[in-house]
Amino acid sequence: PMPMKPGAPLDKGGAPHQTTKDGYEAMTTQQGVPVRDDQNHLKAGTPGPMLMDDFHFREKMFHFDHERIPERVVHARGYAAHGFFELTDSLEEFTSAKVLTETGKKVPLFTRFSTVAGNKGSPDLARDVRGFAVKFYTDEGNWDLVGNNIPVFFIQDAMKFPDLIHSAKAEPDRGFPQAQTAHDNFWDFISLSPEAMHMVMWIMSDRTIPRSLRFMEGFGVHTFRLINSKGKSSFVKFHWKPKMGMQSVVWNEAVKINGADPDFHRRDLWNAIEMGDFPEWELGVQIFDDAFADKFAFDVRDATKLIPEEEIPVRIIGRMVLDRRVDNFFAETEQVAFCTGNVVPGIGFSDDPLLQGRNFSYLDTQIKRLGGPNFTHIPINAPKCPMRTFQQDGHMAMKNPVGRANYEPNSWGTKDGGPREDPDNGYQHFAEPIDGKKEALRPESFADHYSQARQFYISQTEVEQAHMGDALVFELSKVEKAEIRERMVAHLVNIDKGLADTVAEGLGIKTPMAMKAARPTMQDLPAS
Ligand code: HEM
Questions:
Q1: How far is the CA of 72 from the centre of ligand 1 (A)?
Q2: Quick one: CA dihedral 476, 482, 485, 489, positive or negative?
Q3: Cα 82-146-423 angle, rounded to 5 deg
Q4: CB count, 10 Å around CB of 148?
Q5: Residues of the chain predicted below pLDDT 50
Q6: Is 75 in the active site?
Q7: Most buried among 88, 174, 207, 344, using CB within 10 Å?
Q8: Which of 213, 218, 209, 208 minimizes the C-alpha distance to 241?
Q9: How many whole angstroms separate alpha carbon 186 and alpha carbon 171?
Q10: pLDDT at 3
Q11: Which co-factor is required (predicted)?
């Protein structure tokens, strides 16, 4: 039989006895044995106790019992499609990566969109961040750009990620709310984490809930590195810009749509691709050097900050088209495994303390989620270029080393000796000079939490600002504990006094004094 494609139907054809009289393919067990009765299990007497002889029943039930795998610990609800990337403008000056230097070539890719906080069955139009994860199957291996639809993040250091997500998901005693930011734990954590204020402004804005995934922007968020063939490094931020422009729904629309059709976004993407109306995005980059990074008002390694496009314009370098739906949701959309650590020669990391933590977390979680160390053998995760390693065995090993050698150095030669490291073309980490102490400190350069939040707020139109005020009043009015509401408004004073007054009025409280401490505790709450 042909090797199975992801989601491909079970083997076709076969021996004559595998076709029924009326022309259907005969159902078989997993061993290929034709099945006579798929309606009734084998019994001793009628009806009598079940007989262990019924291997078909046992196999069918055992397999059903094991259908579930853990959902993703975040971004559980997602929807994906296949497509291609075509580079139109080479970045040869900055990177040796073929995917960013070979113009005109179509690189296959797989893109998964998601919400973050809700479980797998939660509604599509929650007030939440959207994931925008792209796996490029390049000739030099898989490159994953695992981004979001908001260019900044809630926290600066990966150490806080489990706390952020615990606070955003269902509360542990009551097991709700599902897919909503409107609850005490979320706002408690946020109000004690001033670094979150910039992202909170985006989340409360009209940009948050896309009308359709096809009208959504994407951002790599972190500053990454590009490294050229001479070993010179530049910094880069990645952007996806939807060809059809950006459009959102407002909260009242989202609430109605979620009630009527919680699958609204996935249905829209499926239908568009089925109709041949293929969604398209431009890939843009902001490239800058150490000199810019040194003089920029914020630390380029701080994921709660963006680099204004007025300072470094976005250069469009290519396009992504999603032109093929999945054949099977589980095999592809569920089993796909993205990781920020998946980079190709010519692309590298910055010392962003969030990015560094992500590089560990994705691989770690996927070993559990996908049942062991061989999930790169699943077709959706396997590179489309050769994969040759001496890694072997483990559960579900499909691609063990071929031949005698499974170690190196060895002296078996090019015929039997297996793969060798490639000093000329192999991945080389950027040799960044390091000078410092080993300590768990947050740099001073990460300390300004309000300026970009303010810039975002004042960049909005009056109507959009009013919606942000409404959103904050709605969300915070669901918070039961008064101190949390008040503490949030104390932060808003630092962002925009008018916004703070509006929200305070909506909540029926007096505007408190501005939040003072960088890391406030309950005791730091100013008296109102
Ligand atoms: C998914 C961890 C920050 C975007 C995930 C998953 C984990 C995780 C464990 C589930 C992966 C899986 O089961 O396959 C973290 C940690 C973060 C972090 C530890 C911070 C320290 C971010 C940021 C972004 C992001 C800043 C956006 C730039 C995504 C996306 C997915 C995801 C898009 C879904 C991938 C998919 O569609 O399968 N993250 N994350 N995450 N994360 Fe993060």
A1: 9
A2: positive
A3: 95
A4: 22
A5: 1-4, 6-8, 527-528
A6: yes
A7: 344
A8: 218
A9: 9
A10: 42
A11: heme
User: 244 by DSSP, 3-state: which?
Assistant: coil
Place of tokens 């809700």: 118
Max CA pair span of the chain: 85
Residue with tokens 């009598």: 48
Please tell me whether residue 491 adopts helix, strand or coil conformation.
helix
Q: How far lies 408's CA from each of 105, 388, 394, 429, in Å?
A: 35, 13, 20, 22
Tokens of 137: 């199957």
Distance, CA 75 to ligand 1 centroid (Å)? 7
Q: Which residues contact 320 (CB under 8 A, 6 or more apart)?
A: 83, 84, 85, 109, 111, 134, 240, 280, 281, 282, 283
Q: Which of 69, 71, 72 for mutating ligand 1's site (highest number of atoms within 8 Å of CB)?
A: 72
User: 85 with 283: CB under 8 angstroms?
Assistant: yes
Does the beta carbon of 74 lie inside 6 Å of ligand 1? Answer: yes
Spatial neighbors of 62 by CB under 8 A, at least 6 apart, are: none
Is 205 near ligand 1, meaning CB less than 6 Å away?
no
* Residue set of the binding site: 72, 112, 161, 358, 362, 369
Catalytic residue among 56, 75, 82, 265: 75
Q: Which two tokens stand for residue 524?
A: 């730091």
What is the overall mean pLDDT for the chain? 94
| Distance in angstroms between the alpha carbons of the first and the last residue of the chain | 74
State residue 472's pLDDT score: 98
C-alpha distances (whole Å) from 474 to each of 204, 211, 479 are 10, 21, 9
Contact 352, 223 (CB under 8 A): yes
DSSP H helices, 148-289, are 161-168, 184-191, 197-203, 251-260, 264-274
Q: Is the CB of 75 under 6 A from ligand 1?
A: yes
Q: Which two tokens stand for residue 249?
A: 């729904």
- In angstroms, what is the span from residue 199 Cα to ligand 1's centroid? 16
β-strand 106-115 against 78-87: which pairing, if any?
Answer: antiparallel
Q: Do 357 and 33 meet the contact criterion of CB atoms below 8 Å apart?
A: no
Q: What was the ipTM of the complex prediction?
A: 0.95
Cα(285)–Cα(147) distance, integer angstroms: 13
> How far does the centroid of ligand 1 lie from the alpha carbon of residue 68, in Å?
21
Sequence-separated (6 or more) residues with CB below 8 Å from residue 123: 179, 258, 262
Q: Ligand 1: which atom is nearest the Cα of residue 158?
A: 21
Which backbone phi and psi does 504 adopt, to 5 degrees?
A: -60, -45
Q: Where do runs of H (alpha helix) occur along 116-192?
A: 161-168, 184-191
Q: What is the CA radius of gyration of the chain?
A: 26
Question: Which tokens hold the place of 233?
Answer: 């490094």
> Is the Cα torsion angle 411, 412, 414, 419 positive or negative in sign?
negative
Whether this prediction's pTM lies above 0.90 is answered by: yes
Any atom of ligand 1 within 6 Å of the Cβ of 114: yes
